[in-house]
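User: Design a sequence. Structure:
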């Protein structure tokens, strides 16, 4: 059994041993948030939680890897747990149930360079000057719209100037090309996972019951 008192300061120990309801930790960089999470997972397992009930989400692959390694050093294995980035967790959900939100099995994931290639193809097809409509700026505008859960039609309906209307045209064609190639970009992974959980109550219930 882990000796938490010798490994953690009083504030960290309080956070690790809190098990009654939600807990919000606000702390700066380098203050030990990842350490707290790894020890908290170990404590939950000691309290009787099953590994399959553990969900730990972070922003970067590096942080997720460090968290997995930390948990392994404390409990020996992370089998059954979800310790990953937001995007990786969304991929797992969509691989399992994505067909419910029109994500076909075996979808590809486009990285930044793939996305720019598609944007450039869209600009060429729409006869738009890529010096006026810079591919990365257009992609950034589309990404911002997706993060606000705006599809091409909604984005276009709110376009108030010529530039925005042209970007909306690119967005519509870009989305069509991704669908034709059975591909999602990183923003789609988040948006489609949100759509899945919001529109499919049985899927939402599954994850609510699994992760405690």
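Assistant: Done.
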């Amino acid at each position: 059994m882990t000796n938490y008192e010798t490994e953690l300061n009083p504030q960290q120990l309080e956070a690790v041993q809190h098990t009654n309801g939600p807990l919000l930790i606000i702390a700066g960089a380098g203050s030990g948030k990842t350490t707290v999470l790894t020890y908290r997972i170990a404590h939950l397992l000691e309290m009787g939680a099953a590994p399959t009930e553990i969900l730990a989400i972070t922003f970067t692959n590096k942080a997720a890897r460090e968290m997995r390694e930390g948990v392994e050093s404390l409990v020996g294995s992370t089998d059954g747990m979800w310790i990953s980035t937001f995007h990786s967790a969304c991929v797992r959900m969509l691989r399992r149930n994505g067909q419910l939100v029109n994500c076909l099995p075996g979808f590809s994931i486009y990285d930044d360079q793939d996305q720019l290639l598609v944007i450039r193809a869209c600009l060429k097809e729409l006869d738009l000057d890529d010096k006026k409509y810079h591919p990365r700026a257009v992609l950034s505008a589309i990404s911002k719209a997706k993060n606000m859960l705006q599809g091409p039609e909604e984005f276009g309906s709110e376009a108030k100037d010529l530039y925005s209307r042209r970007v909306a045209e690119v967005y519509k064609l870009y989305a069509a090309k991704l669908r034709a190639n059975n591909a999602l970009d990183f923003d789609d992974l988040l948006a489609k996972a949100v759509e899945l959980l919001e529109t499919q109550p049985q899927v939402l219930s599954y994850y609510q019951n699994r992760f405690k």
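The chain is about 60% helix and 5% strand. The chain has two domains: 4-98+200-210, 108-181.
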